[in-house]
Design brief:
The chain has 417 residues and is an alpha/beta fold. It is 35% helix and 19% strand. The chain is built from twelve helices and 21 strands. It is globular, with a radius of gyration of 21 Å. One of its GO terms (cellular component) is Golgi cisterna membrane.
Amino acid sequence: MSPKTADEIAAAADATIHEVGYDRNGFDSRIDTKTLRSLYLAPAFIKAGAETTNVGSASKDYGTESVYDKDSNKIQYTTFAKFPPVRLLPDAQRKRILVTGGAGFVGSHLVDRLMLLGHEVTVLDNFFTGSRTTVSHWVGHPNFEMVRHDVVEPFMIEVDQIYHLACPASPPHYQYNAVKTIKTSFMGTLNMLGLAKRTKARFLITSTSEVYGDPEEHPQREDYWGHVNCIGPRACYDEGKRVAETLTYGYMRQDGVDVRVARIFNTFGPRMNPYDGRVVSNFIIQALKGEDMTVYGDGQQTRSFQYIHDLVDGLILLMNGEETRPVNIGSSHEFTIMEFAEAVRDIVEEVQKAEGVPNPKRVGIIYNDIPTDDPQRRRADTTRAKETLDWQPRWMVRDGVREMVLYYKQMIDQGKL
């Protein structure tokens, strides 16, 4: 049996979900998954010597051609000017949207969706943790603009909606410069709320499940006040997001700013920084490289994982809905870290076999000390999201992990990992 391409493997696994988004209340945000997949899963051609491998049929239309020479360890890029087709909206429906942190993991997927829906999108990013490459396929499009800017400084633009995502979100990144992290949470949110007040734009801030700390209530409802160590190594992020929420509701009550607050739980998917220290990316890369997977603690601590497309669905529904209270956006299905590690190991082996590896190496699992203040249990109570947004996750974790495995394998094949 001949090896399968990444597109063929993903298509075989995609038996149930063929589109993302919703059509309700006069707002249609539906996009087919094949179009989205072409933007992250098959963006390149690899040419090594005389052998050419087409990594995806949609690549030449929507991505970048890369020629990688293993001998010299150099890569040559050729970009294509043809963009994915975007929806043609009437002026009354097309919005001017600002996405801070739009070159990051979550931001880039949100930008893809907003662009495909036909809106005018401006990305604001200082590239501290984000990367231009995540949205480079939109550079040059008449509806797209990317600005290098740090949100701790004011920014002036006329907009209808602001998605405020800018802030380091992985422990190694936000602990690397704790002062910068809390400054971004406070000053960045202050500046963006000021912009929303001036332009009368609707403002959505992406908060986090970390505002609940190491919770004593399980699962966590939005009215739970949390159990946070305010001076611990994670406090710069946890407390930064808590004060950002306080600012947001201060502007709503005092100045009438139209606000939305999304509390995001563990999310994974393509474009996650492979070196950001998160459990999903760590497991997948270690397994793909044939290295033992590292579990911190005994592996019995729990997390609820949602796929990136479900999160973006939730953010867009929240922005365009009427709910102004905080809303948990996450999965209610709980895994132990050990269960998740074993699932990743199985899926990596499945992908390797499908691509022609006869007997993939079965990696082991090693244990390290658990980090300080790492929560033991984390699961969203999504009742409010279901009742007010009619939203709940649709992607199975295994399907999402499979796409992420294909994405990282592609990076390894290109010499990027």
